[in-house]
Every structure is written in C-alpha cells, then in structure tokens.
Amino acid sequence: MKAGIQRIASEVGEAGCYALCIMELAERITGKSIDVLKAFIDGVHAKCIYYNFDNPEDPDNSTVTDAGRFLTLLTGKKYSHRYESDRKKPLKTGELIVERWERKATGKTYGHFVLPDWDPLGNSLTLKMGYWVSNRIFTPV
C-alpha cells in the first residue's frame, strides 16, 4: 500500500467531487465498478488530475486538469470535454454532463460538482442552498 494513502483518501473525499463524478460516468459507461483510490492515483500519474505528493496542503490538490482524457483513461473510449455556461443548451446524442454549483457562506465561495441525478456527497449543502454555475460536457470522439 502507498504511504500516505489515508491523506490521499481524505483529499479525494474533501475536494475530489469532479474526479468522482467522472468516475461515476465511467462506471455507467462500462458497467464496471471502479476502485476510486486506484483511479484517482492513476489519474494523477497520467497528469489528468493535479496532486502534489510533497505538499498535501496544496490548495490545488485534486484539481482535474484534463477531464476528457481522464474519462478516456477510465473507459478505454475517447472523450473530449468542454465548458458550457448555457444551462438550457440541449445535449447531443451520447453527450454526458457534469454540473458545477456554488454557494457563498461566511465570506467564502464553495464549489461542488454533481451529475444531474447523482451527488458524490449524497446531500450537499452547496447543491441544496447554492446556485448552478456551469456544465462540463463530455462528447464521445
């Protein structure tokens, strides 16, 4: 087992909502269960997710840097992705969506990624009390 795995697992739980949403999409696409920690670490090594192993306090840890390539890595099928600020723009056949939500509290802005029918936290305050900001659209290539 990798030394520091507990810290990585904590980081995934705390700030890995976008990566977790992509993993959930991959499970739906492949019909196979994904080992979350393995997929996360594989995503880091493939440079799809930023994680600074030398600084677990790095505020950018768990940032998905190449979402399309991460979904491709998990599914074996090529995907591109784009940012979309028009909530009502219809999806094309085969496209998948991840939503970004935000809420303001105690002078801070909190962000959270969800699928339209799935929340990695299960019952996020940001989703309940916040507002929609944008979508990430994944398109099979």
Topology:
Layout: H1 5-15, H2 17-30, H3 36-45, E1 49-50, E2 63-64, H4 67-75, E3 79-84, E4 96-105, E5 108-114, H5 125-129, E6 131-140
Antiparallel strand pairs: 1-2, 3-6, 4-5, 4-6
Helix pairs in contact: 1-2, 2-4
What would you report as the Rg, rounded to the nearest angstrom?
15 Å
How does the major sheet shape up? 4 strands, antiparallel
Query: How would the global form be characterised?
Result: globular
Rounded mean pLDDT is: 94
Q: Please count the helical segments.
A: 5
Number of strands: 6
Q: Name the structural class.
A: alpha+beta
Task: Report the span from N to C terminus.
Answer: 36 Å
Q: Could you name the ranges where pLDDT drops below 50 across 5 or more consecutive residues?
A: none
- Measured by DSSP, the beta-strand proportion falls in 25-35%
Describe this structure as you would to a colleague.
With 141 residues, this protein is of the alpha+beta class. Helices cover 35% and strands 26% of the residues. The protein is built from five helices and six strands; from the N terminus they run αααββαβββαβ. It has helices spanning 5-15, 17-30, 36-45, 67-75, 125-129, and strands at residues 49-50, 63-64, 79-84, 96-105, 108-114, 131-140. The strands form two sheets. A four-stranded antiparallel β-sheet has the order 3-6-4-5. A hairpin with a 2-residue loop joins strand 4 (96-105) and strand 5 (108-114). Helix 1 crosses helix 2 and helix 2 (17-30) packs parallel to helix 4. The relative contact order is 0.18.
